[in-house]
């Protein structure tokens, strides 16, 4: 007894308070569960009572309870039994499935931003549906269900296979494999869609996600065993999955096998998400929202998180479906758009709350550095053999001198030569029979008049536009990655691409003309200003900026999808090609604003690059060396936003160029340099080559440059980030 009472008083006090805190936490979870269950019941009643057919709540209640011969009424049987009841049950089941899947995925990846499309499930399902439509003429809801489910399962199986190679499926490998293969699947889907107006017409409404096509219980009952299996696996894996939060080593010490746990979780997520996508189409953002909200209420208790996430998902999808029926009568709004419009502000409010700040997820960036008193070490890339002071030389011209780095200069020279070769190849490639010598002559304005017209009027203008856009994207990616110290960082994280795309489409819709150069930068700037203002500034660390950026992207993407769905087929098809990233019809005129912007912004970027090298240290060290970290971050972010916005205005949101260009240029220039010039040259080369491939790959059909870069960029991302030493390079 005496020994048990010994010890520091604060330890005894903590031991006395722990049970009380646990009891209070259990009461909070129980109260939240009861409240959510009540809300779900109310929303279900609204769903049964809302819709066409002039059937009110009293008639619905009579039908459900079997009173007054309501079930013998053919009209009530059609409206309630065949339409509203199956639709409500499907919304509840799919919402619970997506919420549970999102919670599981966030737990296994240890990333509260993980979303159910992360394993490539949505992209695989979309590819399956498009394949069925394009090659087999599938047009029924049940046909979509089968092809969507098959594509989703196949995509997840490939992701697991790739992620489990060489050392097992760590959270990082799982995320990267899903993102890369998902992007490749999406690119292949776009290839099939842009080549068939009929396929696109069917796909553009399915991809929005909707419960409008649910009639009867046949589709739901056919996938009910799959959903049930996913829910059972999710509950059974909750306890082993909780052990992974302690780390793989401690989990192994407790008798668990981390690789097996992650595989089982991936299977559960696949079953739940694949069945959901097959039933109602890809409903994005719901898994992220439900998992995030559940964790904000329950804390680290995973079983409670799973149950609460299921309830939240069911309630959100059911409520969104009710709103989708009433906000634009007599038409229906896409349910995924409703979720984004209402879910994004809720998610932003949660991430800005005091509770999330106290959990260490939204504090200022300075807290991570040595100035916080923890003495964290700063790790810089080690110079390779032969790289150092001897690698530099001074170039002089009269009174001017310039410090040059030999390896970087050689890399820039090689890249410039490759760029010239890419330009010549692009001018030569095409549907005409011009030889290489005739092409070179036409470039300089000599030779046959038709050759000169074809090359200088059409091909060279397009090439110049591609060069400008590629250089802008490469430089924007270099600034963003260096600023974030993360090779996965691109302007897309701040909603730049989606904001610029939405602004360009809105300008075309409201103004009647397409291609206004100012729309892209204006939309990109508006997106970043909103993200920065809402998140509390660029100095925020953790997940606040990323969460707000994702929410901004979801809102802008919802606007884009609505604009496309409201336009005629011909107009929507052409705009869809542009939103995939295309240089078709681009010429000198659209390149002039970007070239002007580059002339102004590139010198600024070269000046800022010197300060970015210093920012590899912590903020206090950078300040002691005469660099203002906050000012440098602001300037870099504004430069990146302006460049990316101008590029989107030219060719739409071309993917992977901003990601790949700095990585390739950095490999060539060495780890101690910020490859500003190299990134521009690589970006310009990649865009010109991708556009050339898109023009010649299929006879008589052009593949947009953004689709080519996406299809090829996925394998590139896997090669770079899933290599032997990827853990040390990311």
Folded structure, characterized:
By secondary structure, this protein is mostly helical. Helices cover 72% and strands 2% of the residues. The chain has helices at 2-5, 9-49, 57-65, 74-109, 121-136, 141-163, 171-194, 197-206, 218-236, 238-244, 248-253, 258-280, 286-298, 302-326, 335-351, 354-358, 406-428, 436-443, 449-484, 496-511, 519-535, 544-566, 569-579, 588-614, 619-624, 629-651, 657-669, 676-696, 705-721, 726-729, and strands spanning 392-397, 400-405. The chain has a two-stranded antiparallel sheet with strand order 1-2. A hairpin with a 2-residue loop joins strand 1 and strand 2. Helix 4 packs parallel to helix 9 and helix 20 (496-511) packs parallel to helix 22. The longest helix has 41 residues, at 9-49.
